[in-house]
Specification:
It is a single chain. This protein has about 120 residues and is an all-beta fold. Helices cover about 0% and strands about 55% of the residues. It is built from no helices and 11 strands. Strands 2, 4, 5, 6, 9, 10 and 11 form a 7-stranded mixed beta sheet that branches. The protein has a 4-stranded antiparallel beta sheet with strand order 1-3-8-7, with no helix packed on it. The radius of gyration is 14 Å and the shape is globular. The N and C termini lie far apart (about 40 Å).
């Protein structure tokens, strides 16, 4: 059974930094990509950043976080990280880790709250 455990959320002042970690267990191979999404009440979940696991390690970012957030991976540990710098109040959301396997199925973590105060 695939499980994703997120950690690292919290409260930070605008301009500060936080780092999120997502560790996947219960899967030995077949991961296509992993990434981070976020959601605020009343809005759809949106992509923050993704990284390819199966090949190349290419990354993709939402325009709103480019230049401030960095996603990275440790394939040996099935873990992805999200370094968030220069945080803004509009980054406040629940951040979810997502793992996609090569046959298309998605798995989600339980979410971690990130709150940025102005």
């Amino acid at each position: 059974q695939v499980q994703l455990v997120e950690s690292g959320g919290g409260l930070v002042q605008a301009g500060g930094s936080l780092s999120l970690t997502c560790a996947a267990s219960g899967i030995a191979r077949g991961i296509n990509n992993m990434g981070w999404y976020r959601q605020v009440p009343g809005k759809q979940r949106e992509l923050v950043a993704t990284v390819m696991i199966s090949s190349g390690g290419s990354t993709d970012y939402a325009d709103s976080v480019k230049g401030r957030f960095t996603i990275s991976r440790d394939n040996a540990k099935n873990t992805v990280y999200l370094q968030m710098n220069d945080l803004k109040p509009e980054d406040t959301a629940v951040y979810y880790c997502r793992l996609q396997v090569t046959w298309g199925q998605n798995y989600w973590g339980q979410g971690t709250q990130v709150t940025v105060s102005s």
